[in-house]
Specification:
It is built from 19 helices and eleven strands. It is α/β, with parallel strands linked by helices and 403 residues long. A five-stranded parallel β-sheet has the order 4-7-10-1-11, with helices on both faces. Bound molecules: zinc ion (ZN).
């Protein structure tokens, strides 16, 4: 069986691995980062997202609390009023960090919450109580939605709930049931979504622009194009029907790798909680907003958050302008038109008007050296890429570009 450690990594899916790492560590630190992977069927985006469960650390909650109350910060209707002593008396337990999936057949009641029928029909002690839905139960974890463009098209009421949930950090979910007072619950959850923009009903930003903007970052998943990677994948997938348990790595190696990933996430989350961004980088982000009329405050908040997260996952203690520039296409592609995106990116590379003018010179120098280093291993700088290469979708790749 494929597990996180033996997922195939190649150039086209590297950005997604980075994104899920950043979102996981941010979620552990208590700050959601909503991410959306777009790409053709068969690029493995949903597999990568689902398999991330393998490396999530456990969380501690008040014993038996279905809302996952943090013993230090109880928030649910049953525990938020209790004293520290009463909480301590209830005890704590460790559970796997939630990773829950909203299916396309889900109803409002199962997603937000509904009346607890078992409690209501209890003969000895009938009472009206709420049964939290998937979202409140995903508190402090991840909520996954496959084919979000289709969901946004066919389930507007679920989309509205998601808009509330993703509107603030932490988000809010409202549970409404006839005969019961409306209950609002704070939910800190990162929403992960996947979709294929080339299939019906089209890209999310065209179906429900507001929901699309709620995603901090979007990455477009390419297919593997390297012959080596494809040959290796073919080899590994050969005869799997005869030897279904054949693994590339043995179980012990996989377990060890997973443990390493998990402890990195925990370590990074601690660093993130204390991290700040240098003033000149923050000012630089603010300038981008003003200069290019970006409109979305969410976008520049995502630049700040993601630049810090990215730097941490690369084991650097400070985010640079380069980190911002690397995140830009992932933050802006779904929010602005491609002409503006090109302009913003060209600014970053210093080709545009002098946005660097007030930037600390020595910092810029380090950035450039580091940029050289980065592009040596990763590819060409953005400024050398043509417009088509930057705004690619699989559709444009398919058209006679098989070379
Ligand atoms: Zn609770």
């Amino acid at each position: 069986m494929i597990q996180y450690a033996n997922l195939e990594r190649y150039e086209g899916n590297e950005a997604l691995f980075d994104l899920i790492k950043m979102s996981m560590l941010s979620t552990i630190a208590g700050e959601p980062l909503h991410i959306h992977a777009e790409g053709l069927r068969g690029t493995g985006k949903t597999t990568i997202m689902r398999k991330a469960q393998d490396i999530l650390p456990p969380i501690k909650r008040i014993k038996g609390c279905i809302y996952n109350c943090d013993p230090k910060e109880p928030h649910c209707p049953h525990h938020r009023e209790l004293s520290a002593q009463e909480i301590a008396d209830l005890g704590v337990e460790e559970i796997p960090m939630p990773f829950l999936e909203i299916s396309h057949s889900a109803k409002v009641g199962t997603v937000a919450g509904s009346i607890d029928l078992a409690k209501l029909t209890d003969e000895s002690h009938p009472e009206a109580r709420l049964l939290p839905g998937l979202i409140p139960q995903a508190h402090r974890g991840i909520l996954f939605i496959d084919e979000i463009n289709r969901l946004a098209d066919t389930a507007p009421e679920i989309t509205d709930i998601l808009l509330d949930l993703m509107g603030t950090k932490p988000g809010i979910v409202q549970i409404e049931e006839a005969g019961l007072p409306v209950v609002k619950i704070k939910v800190s959850v990162s929403v992960w979504a996947a979709s294929n923009p080339d299939e019906d009903p089209g890209p999310l930003e065209e179906i429900r622009r507001q929901l699309s903007d709620r995603f901090d970052m979007v990455c477009y998943m390419g297919r593997p194009t390297s012959i080596d990677v494809l040959a290796k994948m073919l080899k590994e997938n050969f005869h799997t029907n005869i030897h279904p348990d054949k693994d590339i790595m043995d179980e012990a190696t996989i377990a060890k790798k997973h443990q390493e990933y998990t402890s990195s996430l925990l370590k990074w989350a601690e660093i993130y909680k204390q991290a700040d961004i240098p003033d000149f980088v923050r000012n630089y982000i603010a300038r981008l907003y003003v200069k290019h009329n970006l409109e979305s405050i969410r976008a520049i908040e995502a630049m700040q958050q993601s630049a810090v997260l990215y730097a941490i996952t690369k084991n650097r203690d400070q985010a640079t302008i380069n980190d911002v520039s690397r995140m830009l296409p992932l933050i802006l592609k779904h929010r602005i038109n491609s002409d503006t995106l090109i302009k913003v990116i060209n600014d970053i590379d210093g080709k545009g008007e002098s946005i660097f003018s007030s930037v600390n010179k020595s910092a810029k120098k380090t950035d450039l050296a580091e940029e050289k280093e980065y592009f040596k291993s990763v590819g060409r700088p953005l400024k050398f890429l043509g417009r088509n290469e930057l705004i690619n979708t699989e559709k444009s790749l398919d058209v006679n570009k098989a070379d």
